[in-house]
Write a structure and sequence with these properties.
Mean pLDDT: 95
CATH class: Alpha Beta
CATH superfamily: NAD(P)-binding Rossmann-like Domain
Low-confidence stretches: none
Number of domains: 1
Radius of gyration: 17 Å
Order of helices and strands: EHEHEHEHEHEHHEEH
Number of helices: 8
Largest sheet: 8 strands, mixed
Strand content: 5-15%
Structural class: alpha/beta
Oligomer: single chain
Distance between the termini: 34 Å
CATH topology: Rossmann fold
CATH architecture: 3-Layer(aba) Sandwich
């Protein structure tokens, strides 16, 4: 896919691999919608892209731990843009960000499930009409090889909490949603794929976990850009990639019953089941 003049919305794109991808796409002539919580980081990215001769991106601030702010973000993108060629759901918090204790979102949900999964679920559902109208278009969910099956009796992990389990559960939820979405979107011209970009990239999230990085944001960025614009994946949907290669996710991802339960829960938690 030629990215010049395409509109790409990337959550969590003022830092880490999201920032790298935003910069690459803007330099390639894409109209990039940048998102983050920190306006100063957003401004510094815009300046960096301007200096590199790229197309000036538009910055949207929002805290994805609030479903109300997430909804407002989605509605702003819908109101301000006539087309959306690619939606990259990249924003996320790691297993140790802000400490190992269990934390909740502004809506009272387990924080990693809320930020890493529910916010992206809500945005994708809100943006679908625009993505369909702009087809052929793509949804790319940035997940992880770290995956933990969802215990539907305790989705918010109130018992035996660990940050790594919470993170891994939120990432599997993303992959399950991707497979579900791909089936729903068959024939619409919109594809949905997920990936593990690279292992322990040199990002704030990885360093916050006390982990020594073993790969670069450039490596992870290449894998994301492959799903964004690669001709070989133009008609592929519902797949999970490890870097550049197709891979198998946790078995629960391929359980239609589990995906149905997750979908019903997600619609309820985001308020979408009532058609709001």
């Amino acid at each position: 896919m030629e990215m010049r003049d395409k509109t790409v919305f990337i959550t969590g794109s003022t830092d880490g691999v999201g920032r790298h991808v935003a910069k690459r796409l803007a330099i390639g002539g894409a109209s990039v919608l940048v998102h983050g919580r920190d306006k100063a980081r957003g401004a510094s990215l815009i300046e960096e892209i301007r200096r590199a001769g790229g197309r000036e991106p538009i910055f949207y601030p929002a805290d994805l731990s609030s479903l109300a702010e997430t909804r407002t973000l989605g509605e702003a993108v819908l109101a301000n843009h006539k087309r959306l060629d690619v939606f990259i759901s990249n924003a996320g918090i790691g297993s140790q960000n802000e400490g190992p204790a269990r934390q909740t979102s502004r809506d009272g949900y387990e924080l990693r499930f809320a930020v890493n999964y529910l916010a992206g679920f809500l945005l994708a559902r809100l943006l679908l009409p625009l993505l369909k109208a702009s087809a052929p278009s793509r949804i790319v969910n940035v997940a992880s090889l770290g995956q933990h099956p969802i215990d539907f009796d305790d989705v918010m992990i109130t018992k035996n909490y660990s940050g790594s389990r919470a993170y891994a559960q939120s990432k599997l939820a993303q992959i399950m949603f991707t497979i579900d979405l791909a089936q729903e979107l068959k024939g619409s011209g919109v594809t949905a794929n997920s990936l593990h970009p690279a292992t322990y990239m040199n990002t704030t999230m990885v360093r916050a976990g006390g982990i020594t990085p073993i790969s670069t944001v450039e490596q992870g960025g290449e894998a994301i850009l492959h799903l964004v614009s690669g001709d070989d994946v133009a008609d592929e949907s519902g797949l999970f990639f490890n870097g550049m290669n197709e891979a198998r996710a946790n078995p629960q991802a391929y359980d239609a019953l589990a995906r149905g339960r997750l979908r019903a829960l997600s619609l309820e938690l985001t308020g979408l089941d009532a058609g709001h």
